[in-house]
Amino acid sequence: MLHWLLLKIQSTEPQADALSDVLMAHGALSVSIEDAHADTLAEQAIFGEPGDPPPGIWQQNVVTAMLEADADIQTLLANVQAELGLDGLKYQLEQIEEQDWVRATQAQFDPIRVTDDLWIVPSWHQAPNADAINIVLDPGLAFGTGSHPTTHLCLSWLAQLPKPLLATANVLDYGCGSGILAIAAKKLGAQSATGVDIDTQAVIASRDNALNNQVDAIFYDSAEYLHEPFEIVVANILSSALMVLAPVIASSCKSGGKVALSGILDSQQEILLAHYATWFEMDAPIQQDGWVLLTGTRRCP
């Protein structure tokens, strides 16, 4: 059976990038930099939303290089230390066996229950409830498999809307990702469902997912989208984008229409509630695992 070697080198912040570059130059198949204290109380959170200033990397790191099984580790380490002027690097060496990566990846994704009557089911699984509304969706390039609390909050909200309301509603999924919310709306009984996204790959994925679910939903690139008002607007995007796009989202919702906003951390809800109150009569926030869903009704312009 084939196998590879994982060389894990302890590193400080100033060394990590240089170590990564030199290891790649000396034949590493891949290199990653991780927090040396990951999964401990000392774990350091460094990532913010897109647009935030780059925070750098962790103070203490593990630089991991994936190498061919016959790699000469001692020669590699000697070359790396010589080029970077280092001495006595601390490291660990592990062996990783070849395996069925597709099967291993699939094993991480089980059907996701939204409600008893609404499930997200990967294509390689049997639906737990054949009589439920089952959305067939595989993890892919686009965000939105139903596993994240922000998506789950939106799906639960859609599932709880009155059936007569949905039956006469045109639904807009703003920032559609995988298209899951538009697909769910249509399967739940919406008159029509439309999705729009700035990412071309998301639009392609959404169209493919709609086809796989035998759903008649329309998806546009944001550059081609013709703005028109909808009875229901759902936007599961970053809170920073929700702030900037608030006027556009408001103009996309008819008077008396419903809006649902997700992608919001608990600490971000107050500023967004105040901002959207300009256009909407806002409801009490709905929380799940530190994330918040904001909903409201469009006032007359």
Automatic annotation (TrEMBL):
The keyword Transferase applies. It is found in: Cytoplasm. It is an enzyme of class 2 (transferase). Its EC number is 2.1.1.-. It catalyses: L-lysyl-[protein] + 3 S-adenosyl-L-methionine = N(6),N(6),N(6)-trimethyl-L-lysyl-[protein] + 3 S-adenosyl-L-homocysteine + 3 H(+). S-adenosyl-L-methionine binds at T151, G175, D197, N236. GO terms for cellular component: cytosol; ribosome. One of its GO terms (molecular function) is protein-lysine N-methyltransferase activity. Keywords: Cytoplasm, Methyltransferase, Ribonucleoprotein, Ribosomal protein, S-adenosyl-L-methionine, Transferase. GO terms for biological process: methylation. Its main location: cytoplasm. Pfam families: PrmA. Methylates ribosomal protein L11. Belongs to the methyltransferase superfamily. PrmA family. This is Ribosomal protein L11 methyltransferase. It comes from Methylophilus medardicus.
